[in-house]
Design a protein that fits this description.
This protein is mainly alpha-helical and about 140 residues long. The chain has 7 helices and 2 strands. It has helices spanning about 1-30, 50-55, 60-70, 75-80, 85-105, 110-120, 130-140, and strands at about 40-45, 45-50. The longest helix is centred in the N-terminal third of the chain and has 27 residues, at about 1-30. The radius of gyration is 24 Å and the shape is elongated. About 25% of the residues are buried.
């Protein structure tokens, strides 16, 4: 009986040690995203960062996409057949939709449906037909990986 009691005490102490270790290990991990560089690219003849192009600070995701694909953004938006909706909303909004399409397309398991949902946050009036050229052309030209 004493042996069983000693064994239970040892098992309990080991379990407690594991719990303490996991708590300490989990609390030392930094869950905040690393700060990102605010890359600058020439757009319309002027240096533009993500925040200067869009007129507000960029969230982590759009900043990542801008840093990665921003160098080809101007030529892509100006030369790709993105449809009349792109003309209606202008360069800046078209550029943001293109970067969002890149981000969604590069995320495993995400499809045009997730892109449409994201795009309709800023453009609730946009239809699937209006958004599809951004999804399709972006994946072919701006971020074809």
């Amino acid at each position: 009986m004493k042996r069983i009691l000693h064994l239970l005490i040892i098992v309990a102490l080991c379990a407690l040690a594991v719990v303490v270790f996991l708590k300490v290990f989990d609390s030392t991990r930094d869950t905040t995203p690393r700060p990102q560089a605010d890359e600058s690219f020439v757009i319309d003849g002027q240096e533009a960062t993500c925040s200067t192009l869009f007129g507000q600070p960029c969230d982590y995701t759009i900043q990542s996409e801008y840093n990665r694909w921003g160098d080809g953004l101007e030529s892509f938006v100006n030369s790709s057949p993105l449809g009349s909706y792109a003309t209606d909303i202008g360069f800046v909004a078209s550029a943001k939709l293109s970067l969002q399409a890149c981000g969604v397309a590069r995320t495993a398991g995400q499809t045009v449906l997730e892109f449409e949902e994201l795009a309709q946050t800023d453009h609730p009036e946009a239809t699937r037909t209006q958004l599809f050229p951004f999804w399709n052309r972006t994946r072919q030209s701006l971020c074809p990986e």
